[in-house]
Write a structure and sequence with these properties.
With 142 residues, this protein is mainly α. The chain is 74% helix and 0% strand. It has five helices and no strands.
């Protein structure tokens, strides 16, 4: 049973890969169009200078890809702690899968229609699932 906690972590990795492919599938054609319009894309070699040059539908996907390297890193850490200490149980699994499903919905929402308040609600719900995992482990370890 302990190894089951690794399944949601792997799915989060798959989500990150899918969002990377989606990001480049939208960003590369947008960059090509900018070049065709006479824009020197080399001027935008620093990430901070990219904001606002691409259409919103392109930037939303890239924003989500970047977000997958923020809060989810805590998810990976707590998942590996749970796995490493052999603490996987049904509640941890429910929380981990809930977290992953919410993050998948969050990614799709942000990359498509980007309803900010709904997205924020999903973000907070994912924190609740993550916090349960974190604090349950903290109570055991500390």
């Amino acid at each position: 049973m302990n190894d089951l906690i690794l399944q949601p972590a792997i799915i989060m990795c798959v989500l990150s890969f899918v969002m990377m492919v989606w990001m480049y599938a939208t960003r590369l054609p947008a960059a090509k169009k900018l070049e065709e319009d006479g824009v020197d894309v080399q001027k935008f070699s620093h990430p901070a200078s990219i904001g606002g040059i691409f259409p919103s539908k392109v930037e939303r996907v890239a924003d989500n890809y970047n977000h997958l390297f923020e809060q989810p890193t805590i998810f990976y850490a707590i998942s590996f702690i749970i796995w490493g200490l052999n603490h996987t149980d049904v509640l941890h699994l429910y929380c981990a899968w809930t977290y992953v499903v919410i993050r998948i919905i969050h990614s799709i929402l942000q990359a498509t229609i980007n309803l900010v308040w709904f997205r924020f609600s999903l973000f907070m719900l994912s924190w609740i699932a993550l916090a349960i995992m974190i604090f349950r482990e903290a109570l055991i370890i500390i």
